[in-house]
């Protein structure tokens, strides 16, 4: 028997039985295959167990495919680089949060170990971050005002030890609440709530927080202490009033360290071979500062140092979780911290996953961050999350798996066990310089420039968040920005986009007449597209817009001697209608019927049809007035107008001077309006018609150009006007005489009316079977030859975008096959709607 191919990676070396052995003597063939089946089931069960285990331990995914020779060295280098970076940064951020420096090292140790096992991102570097530290320091000092007077959390003044201990308890309890929120959001799959925090909100918030953080650290560079202030104007006033206390030794030393860090970051960012310099920059200035204290004894000359740091691994703090008397104040802070951390962490994790071509499970990532914070809160760590700067260094250093994060944790653990006495002599101005150099990346001024170019409304939200954080407070500024973002969502939902659409000449495509001014409107009927679901918040506004369109179109159509008979609603973008919208549509149908206008629905989805049918709106409207496409609805309505002897001549309507987008007059051309005159009846459309194969790209590459226009097409056939016989369906209408030059002939229909047949030589389509619930006769509603039909052409609207007779509406210049036209059917009810309308 041939050997079976292994169903598992050879590098795992699982002790599976060898299936390639032939049956032993005395074994039947049936018994052999039974054993093979049992072994295969064992193999499948083993793989199912590993897949099940990967749900709880995402590290199983990269462990199963880990390539030692290719990845191990890169992971070690990345882990060491981030470890050298996080040690001084963690100590700095802990001081920013008002906690002892060792808490920053704790936050970069155990949470990193846990996250490397349960996190789904392979390059995310977890630990203390600046914005979170600022939020914690601000809110906890509001809860415990006495903590704001502590100048050195590492060595509080006599009588302040108990206050600092209470402050540490609050930080651990806050971390526990954030961990609970993280886990709850991930388990119940509520990560979508971060969608309400747009990048404009977070960008403005982080930029404002960066300036606030920087001003809080300037005191270590200047060498004097100032009281804690939140608002920019108060901080600036305090520094100006205390400038006489400036210490030149601290200023020169801190400024030098800041300059070194900025230069090393610039070199590491712009020179690929020297990118490691960016990671070791913070550790370099720490070594220089410690050497200056040990060799030059600068601490005796007024230079402040970190002070005592506890040696060893973190102590358990589970007993600090309860009781929690300040939960009413801590819980809102925990929500803000969780939302900000979640958006920052998931955004950088998604970017890294996309760049390294692997899948990131968002809810699993949130659960991983929650478990990492649970472990941290249980062992003396305050809130941690993914860091932008350290994650970028981790990725640039070549991290391939979570092993890099694991190595970073043990670098910090080594420092905690053996090197904390050395860092006790670290100057405080060194930590201040590290924070000041780190916040440069948080100033997202480029995002503000981008928003200015793309969307001014998003820029307004960005500025509200930025200025609110600077001039009011961190949490109020963030709340204002979130409120504005939610209001924008409500505004966009309550005032959806609607458009009056016309047909592109020579095609069956219907587009907004403001975007395509040469699109043709048809007197006697109006087509409006609604680009949003209809529900209680927007249906009244949509109804008012429809009434405006109706008033304008009645005037425009009446100037051409034809009353407005049909109002066609393109429902293709409408995915949902609620009870309020259904009731309003029922009122609209009855109001239009009293004015002599028939409402027509085109291309409604199955869900919309079901809702209308259950509310009996389909019976009130009439099932014959629901169509699969706008083009079919217009053809049917035009045929009804023609049977009544009304001349139906489509023509282009320009935004200015035609009653749409400009004045509400008759639409006569004004010489001073700058708009081309309306074509006289019977004339060809005043647009350039270019064969689809004649498109070519311009030499500059900026769009497409076309050769000189071809000869205008033959004028469209006209129908002579005859006395009207009433509304469609009221009785047989007399056949109007066709124009002398028209080769179409009129045939009698089974209903006693008349149909239009194509000229000789044009194949006639077979009659359609009648649909259930439809009162439209197949012969009366038979398809007709498109009297506006022209050769396959491309219409060039404003902006050099070529439009072709396809569903996409956008062409790149190459010829495309003509799509088949849908059957000219009026729907017979909800059951007759094809699945393609979903």
TrEMBL record:
It is found in: Membrane. Residues 799-815 have a biased composition (Polar residues). Residues 657-783, 799-838 are annotated as: Disordered. Its main location: membrane. It is a multi-pass membrane protein. Residues 666-676, 717-759 have a biased composition (Low complexity). The chain crosses the membrane at residues 69-87, 99-118, 170-188, 200-222, 280-298, 403-423, 429-452, 459-491. Residues 515-637 form the STAS domain. Gene3D superfamilies: STAS domain. GO terms for biological process: transmembrane transport. Keywords: Membrane, Transmembrane, Transmembrane helix. This is STAS domain-containing protein. It comes from Edaphochlamys debaryana.
